[in-house]
Design goal:
The complex is a heterodimer of chains A (302) and B (217).
Chain A lengths: L1 H20 L1 H34 L6 E5 L5 H13 L3 E7 L1 H12 L16 E6 L4 H12 L4 E6 L2 H42 L1 H9 L4 H44 L11 H29 L4
Antiparallel strand pairs in A: 1-3, 1-4, 2-3
Helix pairs in contact in A: 1-8, 2-6, 2-8, 6-8, 6-9, 8-9
Chain B lengths: L1 E9 L5 E10 L4 E5 L6 H8 L7 E6 L2 E2 L8 H5 L2 E4 L11 H12 L3 H14 L15 H13 L5 E5 L7 H16 L3 E6 L2 H5 L4 E6 L2 E2 L2
Parallel strand pairs in B: 3-8, 3-9, 6-7, 7-8
Antiparallel strand pairs in B: 1-2, 1-4, 4-5, 9-10
Helix pairs in contact in B: 3-4, 3-5, 4-5
Classes of the chains: A alpha+beta (302), B alpha/beta (217).
Chain lengths: 302, 217
C-alpha cells in the first residue's frame, strides 16, 4: 500500500515538473482552460450576489385592497368574509383608516398633520398575503379582488420584485447552460492536449508496454498532468473572477448608492471554491482518460 | 519454466507462423532457437513474453497459462521476463542511464536502490562509463549491450534474446554470447534465437530448430 502511494506521489510530482518545465506552453493552455471556467464562474457570482441582495429586501408579495372612502362597515365585513373563505388567500390584515393615519404621522414625524386637513384622507385597507406566489395566480387574485363591491383599487406591492425574481431565474438558467457548455469545452480541450502529449511520447509508450508496463502505468502520468492542469486553471479562474469583483465593486457601490441601496458582488466561499476545484479536476481527468483509453485501445501489444 | 502444448499461431491474413508446437524448457536451462528468417523464431519468443497470443494450444510460463490470462494481466507476466529486441527498441531521447531505469520504474522499484541496480547492470555489460551518453552516440554493439542491460536490470527469471548477434562481427558476437552464458550461470533461463548456427554449436547447448513453423528434423 505504501509502495502504491509512493508510485502515485512520484507520478504527481513528475507531472507537475513536466508542466513547470514548459512554462509558456503550459501557461497558454492554462489561460484557455481558465477562461472557460471564469466566464460561467463570474456569471454565477453575479447572480448569487444579486440574489443575496434581493433576499434581504422585503419581497414577500402583498396585495393591498383600498376601499372606497364612503364604504360602510357592512361592506368591510363582506370583503372580510370573502377573504376568509378564498382559497388563494394565505392570510390578511385589516388596517382601518385612523390607525393608518397615526402610523403615517409617526413614521414621518409630522404629528398633527391631520389637524390641518379636512378629515382623514386615507381609506380603509386590507393587506393580503397570497397563498401562491405564481405571477399568474397573483394577477388573477388582483383582478378578482378589484371586482368586489366598494373596492377602489387593489395594489400589488412587490410586482418589481417578482420580475426581478424571474430575471434571476433566467440568469441562473443561463449560468447553468454556460456552465455545461464550458464544462464540455474543458473536457475536449484537455482531451486534445493529452492526445498531443501521447503522440509525442508514442515510442516511449510502445516500448514501455513491450517491457511490461500495464495500462494504468501508461495512463498515470497523463491523468496526473490533467489533474494539475485542471486544479491550476480553476485557481486561475478564481483569481480572474476575484479580480473582476475587485474592479466592479466600487462602481457598483456608487450605482447602488443612488438608489440608497448596498450592493456588492461577493467572492467564492470556501466550500464553493472546493467544489470548483473538484469539478475542474474531475472534468480534466475524464478528458485525459478518454484520450489515453482511445490510444491504449489502438496500441499494440495489448 | 516454459512449456508449449500444441501451440499454433496464425496471423491475421492467414499466415501460419507456428504449427502445433510442443516442447518445454526447464528452469535455468540455456536453449538456442535456430532457423531461417520466417521460420517462426520471433513469433515463438513473442508468445513466451505474451506480446502475441497463441491462436490455439497452451503457452505456460512460470506456471501461468498465458492462453487463459486476461489481456490486462499479460504486462505483469512480462515484468518477470527480460527481452533483448532485435531492433533494440531504445528510447533515443533519454540517456543510457534512464533507458536502463525504465523497467525498474515500471515495476515500481524503490528509487534509491534503483540507481544502484542500474549501475550494476551497466557495469555488467561494460557501459558504466557511458551512463550519461545518449543512445544515438553508441555503436551498434554498444546499443545491443545497452538493450541487454535493460533486459536484466530487474533480475528476470527468464531472458529472451531475438537475434542478438545479428549485424555484429564474430568477436563481438562471442562477447555477447559469453554475457548470456554468465546470466545462465546465475540461474536465469535463457532462450536465444539466431540464424547463424555455427555460433551456437560451440556452446553444446540444446538447439530447437524451426522450419516453417514446425520442428526441423
Amino acid at each position: 500500500m505504501k509502495h502504491y502511494l509512493t508510485l502515485h506521489w512520484q507520478s504527481a510530482i513528475r507531472a507537475l515538473l513536466h508542466i513547470l518545465r514548459q512554462p509558456l506552453a503550459s501557461l497558454l493552455n492554462l489561460l484557455m482552460l481558465s477562461l472557460a471556467l471564469a466566464l460561467p464562474l463570474s456569471l454565477y457570482l453575479a447572480i448569487q450576489s444579486i440574489e443575496d441582495w434581493s433576499g434581504k429586501l422585503n419581497v414577500t408579495p402583498e396585495l393591498t385592497i383600498f376601499m372606497e372612502m364612503n364604504s360602510e362597515p357592512a361592506d368591510l365585513a363582506a370583503v372580510e368574509g370573502t377573504l376568509k373563505n378564498h382559497p388563494k388567500v394565505g392570510g390578511f390584515a385589516f388596517i382601518d383608516k385612523d390607525h393608518a393615519l397615526e402610523a403615517l404621522e409617526a413614521r414621518n414625524g409630522i404629528s398633527g398633520m391631520s389637524e390641518g386637513l379636512d378629515g382623514n384622507p386615507l381609506p380603509d385597507a386590507f393587506v393580503v398575503k397570497p397563498a401562491s406566489l405564481q405571477t399568474q395566480d397573483l394577477d388573477l387574485l388582483q383582478k378578482e379582488l378589484s371586482g368586489l363591491p366598494m373596492v377602489e383599487n387593489v395594489q400589488f406591492d412587490a410586482a418589481w420584485a417578482q420580475r426581478l425574481n424571474q430575471l434571476l431565474k433566467l440568469g441562473a438558467q443561463l449560468t447553468l447552460f454556460l456552465g455545461i457548455a464550458f464544462a464540455v469545452a474543458l473536457v475536449l480541450v484537455t482531451h486534445n492536449t493529452i492526445r498531443m502529449q501521447i503522440l509525442a511520447r508514442r515510442d516511449e509508450i510502445g516500448i514501455s508496454k513491450l517491457i511490461g508496463a500495464s495500462d494504468s502505468f501508461i495512463r498515470r502520468p497523463f491523468l496526473y498532468h490533467a489533474l494539475w492542469q485542471g486544479i491550476l486553471s480553476a485557481l486561475l479562474a478564481w483569481g480572474m473572477a476575484s479580480y473582476l469583483i475587485h474592479v466592479a465593486n466600487p462602481v457598483l457601490a456608487e450605482l447602488a448608492q443612488l438608489y440608497n441601496e448596498q450592493l456588492a458582488l461577493r467572492s467564492l466561499n470556501a466550500s464553493e471554491l472546493g467544489l470548483l476545484l473538484l469539478i475542474a479536476a474531475l472534468l480534466s481527468i475524464s478528458g485525459a482518460r478518454l484520450a489515453t483509453d482511445h490510444h491504449l485501445r489502438q496500441a499494440q501489444p495489448h | 519454466m516454459i512449456q508449449f502444448d500444441q501451440v499454433s499461431k496464425r496471423y491475421p491474413g492467414g499466415f501460419d507462423a507456428l504449427k502445433n508446437l510442443s516442447f518445454s524448457i526447464e528452469n535455468g536451462e540455456m536453449v538456442f532457437l535456430a532457423g531461417h528468417s520466417g521460420a517462426g523464431k520471433s513469433t515463438l519468443l513473442k508468445l513466451v513474453s505474451g506480446i502475441e497470443r497463441a491462436t490455439s494450444g497452451n503457452v505456460i510460463v512460470n506456471r501461468q497459462n498465458l492462453s487463459q490470462l486476461r489481456a490486462s494481466q499479460l504486462p505483469y507476466v512480462r515484468q518477470h521476463i527480460g527481452i533483448v529486441f532485435q531492433d533494440h527498441k531504445l528510447l533515443y531521447d533519454r540517456s543510457v542511464f534512464d533507458n536502463v531505469m525504465l523497467p525498474l520504474d515500471i515495476i515500481g522499484f524503490d528509487r534509491r536502490d534503483a540507481a544502484r541496480r542500474v549501475r550494476a547492470a551497466l557495469d555488467k555489460v561494460g557501459l558504466l562509463n557511458k551512463e550519461k551518453s545518449m543512445p544515438i552516440g553508441l555503436s551498434g554493439g554498444e546499443q545491443q549491450r545497452l538493450c541487454i542491460a535493460r533486459a536484466v536490470v530487474h533480475r528476470p527469471s527468464i531472458l529472451l534474446a531475438d537475434e542478438p548477434s545479428a549485424n555484429l562481427d564474430r568477436a563481438y558476437a562471442l562477447d555477447i554470447m559469453e554475457l548470456f552464458k554468465s546470466f545462465h550461470q546465475v540461474g536465469v533461463t535463457v532462450l536465444i534465437s539466431a540464424h547463424d548456427e555455427t555460433l551456437m554449436e560451440d556452446y553444446g547447448r540444446r538447439i530447437i530448430r524451426l522450419r516453417e513453423g514446425q520442428f526441423a528434423s
